[in-house]
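Hi team,

Filling in the usual template for the complex we talked about on Friday. All components are listed, including any nucleic acid strands or ligand strings, so the model treats them as one assembly.

SUBMITTER: L.P.
PURPOSE: interface mapping
COMPONENTS: three
RESIDUES: 1503
SEQUENCES:
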Amino acid sequence: MLNFMALIPETLLSATLVLMLLTFWLRDKNTPKTFYTIAKWGVLAALIAEVVLYNQSLLRENYINNSQIMLFKVIVYLLLLGNMHISLKWFLSEDKSSFRFYFTVLLLQLCWVAALSAVNLLVFVAVLMVGLAAAYWLLGTHIQDDEEELNEIRRFRWVALLYGGIGIIGAWWLGALSGGFQFADIRALVTENPQNVEAFAAAAMVMVSLLFMLGVAPFHFWMAGVLSAAILPVSGYLSVVPLFAIYACLINLMTEALEPMFALFIPVLKVFAVISILIGAIGANNENNLRKLFVFSRLFVIGIVLAVLVGLSETAEFSGFVFLLVSMLAMAGIYTVFYGFKSKGEYLSNMQDVAGIAESKPYIAAAMLMFMTSLLGFPPLLGFVGMLIVLDDLVSVHQYGIILAVMLGILMMASAYLRVIKVMYFDEKQRSFDRVDRGIYMILLTDVVIIVALLVSPKELLGAIAAMLRL
Amino acid sequence: MLALSLFKLFCLGLFSEIFQKNRLQKSWAVIVLIFAAAIIVNMLTPDVMVAGKNFVFQWIDTSAIKVKLLLKPSTEMYRFGALLGMITLVVMFYNCFYDEGKMRLRNGGLYLLIFIVMMFLISAQNMMQILISVCFVDILCFYLLKDSNLKRRYMFYNMMADMALIIMCALIWGQIKSLNLGDMLQFVKKAPDKNIILGLWCLVVAVKSGVVLFHDFVLDLKKVSLVRGLFIFYVATPMAGLLLMWKMYPLLAASAWGHYVFYAWTAASVVWAFLAVFAVDDLKAKIMYWNMMLMGIMMGVLAVSKLAFVKLVPWLPWCGIMISTAMILPIVAASNEVLVSKMGQFAKKIKFSLLFTLLVIAAEVQIISALATKDVYWYLWIAVALQLLSVAHVLGQIYFAPAVVDEKVWALLKNPNLFYFLPLMAFVGLVFSHFEFAAGAVCLALGVVILVIVLRPMRGLNCFYRDDTLQRVSPCSVLYDWLLVTPIKVVGRVLWLMIDFVFIERTIINMLRKLAALMMKIVAMLHKDMKTSGILFTLLGVAVLCWAYYFRGRF
Amino acid sequence: MQPIIPYLLFIVLLPLVGIVFLLLAKDDEKTAGENVLKVAALTVIANLALIVRAFMHISLEYGKIQLVEKYQWLENPKIALVFGVDCFALLLMVGIHLAILIGLWGVRNEAEGQKSRMIFTLLFLSFMCGFLTAVDIFSFFIFFEAMLLPLYMMVGMFGEVRRQGTLFRFTLYNLLGALLLFVAIVVIFNHQGTNIFLNKISGVKLGQLSEFMVWCSIFAAFVSRIPIWPFHYWISSISARVKNPLVFIIANILPLTGVYGFMRFWPKTMPDVMIFLVVILEVISVLTMLFIAFIAIINKDIQYKIFSFMTVYYIFYLLGVFLPTDQILLNVGFSIFAFLLIFAALDVMLSFMNRQQENTGISTEGCLQYMPRLSMVFTFMVLAGIGMPLSSMFVNNFVIIAELLNYNLVTSFVALAALILVSTALLSDLYRRKKDDNLANGKEMIKDISTGEAAFMWGVSVILVLSFVNPLWFVRG
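RESULT (copied from the run log):
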């Protein structure tokens, strides 16, 4: 019997989307807050439903929920809520319609939760491709008439089509080979012959598509240009929120469907991880644009997460999760700080534009400093906990080559962050900065409190996470 | 009782240092002098200095090191203490009345503090107490010397000596794990590094005593007032060097060559000073050379016999002080004219000064006759003869040579006031009343001296006064500059250029910088255009996948 | 009996509480930094009082860890942070607090950026206290690395360092050392399966290659903090050029963490693989001492001379740490206590003279002639610094020298030559400032330190003299 209760969260999200559409079409006097409010309540309701119904599955062979999946979903929901709240500031200050943004992020949320629960490869890939398309549409939100930025978005369209197509073809091929699209069918195929070249090629195509969405090197080339061209709420969203979802999808795929073949992918993922770490670290040093710098920083983080995953220790998943969580908390904080970098109504993204900001906006600068050092894994901030767990994991599986790459990467990332700190704190102020909205301070404070609280007593939270990840 | 007296002196000294007054300087200085005199005179009695109670202070008591500070009355303590105490009082007396500007009270305090520290040195029974005393003397003298050039040279020599002393004591302690002087004999028998230690000890004593090669800081004392200069010489550092030699005497037994080193140094000091007296024109410099000669003589006596030293030393420093005082009389009389070449025929106007100078010479001869023991007899007489010969030559130049005096100086030339003669009178009276009159020696010596003064047989050597280089330049300073200072500076410069600047800046840092720049350039190029980078990276990804599949099983 | 109050936790946290008060303190043009300075100074004094109080509860031996406090931090992996102290650590903390107090006094007239300066100072102090009270490898590492951030901020914001590239390299170099230590301790932790006390590290038996790599990493981590050739350049480029006295003091406390690290980590029974490393380190150390001393002689910059003086002494203490005996480690601690106060006082007085020079345009040559109060104290500090018996440095250096001479004559003589050279360099600057040739212009504009300021400096001198008589004079019983 079909357990439709499992679909309540998704239904709520869909209903919210419909409501938003109707509001957009039928109501004249819509403000940016209108769509935010609708989206907020919809997401909250869906979140509550998700938590309550965490172990309700629709069809065991197609769509499941358990504590592990719920954990990822909850994180994604919470990050989405935070991102939605802060994005409102942008729309309010720019006085622009927020419909496209909130609608799309809600649609993307629907895609992520669906992908997380899907155990049917076709459904899995389909929702992810819808997500990719939605992401493309999101990128176009209020894009300026800058020719270069428009070209970046257009090029992304083709690249997304290419990689999306690769993913679809790969999924279709795998399904054809295994005689069914369920993960169980695929698992059976690869168990029978783990080194089958066709199966490997098909699986590789699906993996490549996922890695492209994750932004792992060498499939990251689109990220820096695209995310810096997009408006601040969009780049903030795409840098932080989908990461957990896609990461969880990758783990699901590897552990549920492709596990017997995983050994073939290990060296690939290792190489990708190391390249990500190094390119992320070196690329960050090249950049004067703050958003591009943190895009490379994100690449560096995802490289480490991938490196931990392929170490195949007992606690690999847990380590990767924790590291990703603490990094994304810091990254979310950094994007919040970007909302404070404003001068004469214009949001600043160039490093030189924020020279001497510490003089007039000391708390903003201090928050930025704190988040960057946490991102680096610097004690005594929360990022250190993540780095410690990662390093412990890598040492336990004797991955010293990767450790060396991580250490080199940290040094180079530190160099990049030091440049930012230098500009903010040591350089002379070149311009005046606009007053920062109190809401931004509140969000920053919340982020800082979370980080400090988790740092002081992390064992409860980490214990809960470990339990939910079935450790 | 001894400790209490020294404590009272310490409080008095500290008071003088802290409460430096700008008004009524003289009065305050006199008050301090009176109190100091009362305490010192009361202290310098056999009951206190010989038969008094020991004072022991357990200073350090750790597992690594244990040190006690000790004030132990003894006969030697009495002899040396009396010497230093009386010199201190005399110097303080002159400090009250001689023009020291606004520093009378502070200087008085420093004299007292130095005296206290020297008492600790005399009574030291362990190396740590010696070290601390010697170092404190240096610190206090550093404050006593006002001129920065004097401080520089003084500290340079004495810091080297102090470091050498620390190294020496550390080596000894490291081997026998005892700081007691009594255990030094044990060290001398056993230690493998005794030659190094003996060498260091000889160096320390020589530097501290201001003998030849290390006499520049002694010569510098000519720039301060005579009072202060004599105090520093006979109560502070050079005397500290001599006492150091006396306290650590057993080290001489460590090796046979120790004695010879000191003999050589004594001879060299006496000869150098003797020659220098003829060469330099500055009378104050000559005075310091005579003192240096005397210090060399005392060192030589000690090297021969500790007993002879203990007998002679309380008196010989007084000889030096009195000769110096007597020789300063012409300077004072001649309105501070210091160049001997600009003096002459002073006998016409200041006969009294000449008379007292001769009396002091007689007193010195009397002392030597009475106290010279058999083992040092001939060496002592030869050295003293050289000294007196040089004194006589200078006296002849001052009192009987043709006058080349400035007119104004000649007009104002007269005997100094009574205060200058008081100590001379006291000294002469004490010597001749204390010792049995050695008529032969005294008459012979005086006769020779007077002959030399009047006939001036060595007047041809006055041509050295015209050599400017000889008057200005100190050969030892030039030697140090060439052998020590310049090489150090050159090495420092080379190291800075080569190691700091060239090697590290130009090689390591540059290399790293270029490597980082290259990597950044490559990454920047790869990410320049989405189309190109897309193709490149996608191909890379595919290549990695193919590689992984092709080499499967080998990982 | 363990005291009820967790002293060590309070000692680490109190500066952080002080930061909260600093954030709330009024700092505008009217107050001109005075409020925030007072808050910072009171925090430091309060912490000092806590430390002195903690002294009353411990026995005064080196190595006996007491007042142990344990905090379960992580369950997966299982890590508990443990804090504890012995006499040595507490003594260093007292010295550092006093040095920072002197530094605060040196910046009391600076209004601009005072709040930020005080915040980072207290942050650094908190991390230093955490570092010195850490007893397990993780808490040790956390504070070892954490202190780099406030240091970087202070040097960058207030150090007036012109070449930012040098500051970057300095920070990255220290960070590299910290990362090496991180990897090493994680390897050890992984091997043992549990957190380890610092004094038990030598008991960990790894494979030969692992042992070699781990100890090399630990070695490199601590060496990176000490200006040892050829890696002294970055440290000297920063430490010798910082103008602000408080920042200079803090920057030059950093090498102490390297010496301290060696002291805590270094195994009593040396693994065979390490013996050659120790020999190399000793040779390089004494050569560094010598050549830095040589450069100090020719370098006219007094800041460099003080940096050289400190470097030579840090390496001297390091040599003492490497001796095959633990008996003198407390002597090293006593000597470092006085050393910290001396260099802090010297630097503050020098910055005063530099300010005079900037305000009046006069040369520093002969300037002390017109500042008698400052001249006396400055002379005292220089004499104490070169090892005269005016502080606990004298006797304790004697003990260290004796043990060094006992161990290796050649090394010791080279080290002592360096000490002499660097002392000569300091003295030569003193003479230059005391030169009594008349200053050409501006001497009437020179201001001496006030009576109150002189009293403060003499107070520091009294502490030094008391330390000479008894280094633990402030401990009852």
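MY TAKE: The mean pLDDT of chain C is 87. The first strand of chain C starts at residue 66 and ends at 74.

Thanks, L.
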